[in-house]
């Protein structure tokens, strides 16, 4: 059982500002309330390739994912760790993020891929965000009949959270825009 | 029934002792990313001292085995997002 969906969103902000916002969205205290399911973000590793202008980063994202009580009972925890790998190519102006869960993977696999590229219609002013999410519930005999319902719930939850994520991104972009105009830094 | 209280021990990776070092590093990184990296100054890494302190703290407090292997991992480009284990 696999559920997959994709979304597209245009930010009316330049790529530089949108990718800066993407790095900051979890850390900003203003966003803590909206993104209350994000408990912690740690950078685990990073690498800069000076010749190519590519930046590789791995971060750990700790998510509070409360499910129905019976699920919590089976799973034994409501905290989920995800690993996010990011590649930013400054030369071609692309940012790619891939996030997957590394805990609870016996029960569920969630993989999310996000790409930020300059918008083809207005590459210097706008950014296009393409997002793909795949959710796969592992069929367990005891859960098989419930699994599909849970899967649907997961999809709904993810869509709610990615809508929140977009709100936060828009807010961060506005904030960075205001900051850059007051400091004369163009991001 | 089914009350499971959330407490700090439910998280196997409580890295909050590193919160201050994390903030210092992330602030430095965000500044470097916006003001240097995006402007084509990607020849030199910055925030090295902040990173070293933060990483040292993380490696002490990261108990989750799955996560700590990423701390040790070199050559990040070889971690394809699609490989499972």
TrEMBL record, chain A:
<dbReference type="GO" id="GO:1990050">
    <property type="term" value="F:phosphatidic acid transfer activity"/>
</dbReference>
<dbReference type="InterPro" id="IPR037365">
    <property type="entry name" value="Slowmo/Ups"/>
</dbReference>
<dbReference type="InterPro" id="IPR006797">
    <property type="entry name" value="PRELI/MSF1_dom"/>
</dbReference>
<protein>
    <submittedName>
        <fullName>PRELI/MSF1 domain, Slowmo/Ups family protein</fullName>
    </submittedName>
</protein>
<dbReference type="GO" id="GO:0005758">
    <property type="term" value="C:mitochondrial intermembrane space"/>
</dbReference>
<dbReference type="Pfam" id="PF04707">
    <property type="entry name" value="PRELI"/>
</dbReference>
<dbReference type="GO" id="GO:0015914">
    <property type="term" value="P:phospholipid transport"/>
</dbReference>
<feature type="domain" description="PRELI/MSF1">
    <location>
        <begin position="2"/>
        <end position="181"/>
    </location>
</feature>
């Amino acid at each position: 059982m696999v559920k997959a969906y994709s979304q597209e969103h245009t930010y009316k902000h330049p790529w530089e500002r949108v990718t800066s916002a993407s790095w900051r969205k979890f850390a900003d205290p203003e966003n803590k309330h909206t993104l209350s399911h994000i408990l912690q973000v740690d950078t685990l590793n990073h690498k800069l390739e000076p010749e190519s202008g590519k930046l590789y980063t791995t971060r750990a994202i700790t998510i509070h994912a409360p499910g129905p009580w019976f699920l919590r009972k089976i799973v034994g925890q409501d905290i989920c760790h995800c690993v996010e790998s990011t590649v930013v190519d400054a030369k071609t102006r692309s940012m790619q993020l891939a996030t997957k869960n590394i805990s609870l993977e016996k029960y569920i696999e969630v993989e999310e891929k996000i790409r930020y590229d300059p918008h083809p219609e207005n590459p210097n002013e706008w950014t296009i965000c393409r997002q793909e999410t795949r959710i796969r519930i592992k069929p367990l005999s005891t859960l098989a009949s419930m699994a599909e319902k849970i899967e649907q719930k997961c999809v709904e939850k993810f869509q709610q959270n990615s809508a929140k994520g977009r709100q936060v991104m828009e807010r961060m972009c506005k904030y960075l825009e205001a900051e850059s105009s007051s400091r004369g830094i163009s991001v | 029934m089914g009350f499971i209280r959330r407490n700090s021990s439910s998280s196997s990776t409580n890295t909050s002792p590193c919160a201050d070092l994390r903030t210092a590093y992330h602030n430095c990184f965000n500044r470097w990313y916006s003001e240097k990296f995006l402007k084509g100054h990607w020849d030199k890494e910055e925030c090295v001292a902040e990173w070293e302190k933060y990483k040292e703290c993380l490696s002490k407090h990261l108990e989750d085995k799955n996560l700590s292997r990423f701390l040790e991992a070199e050559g990040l480009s070889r971690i394809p997002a699609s490989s499972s284990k």
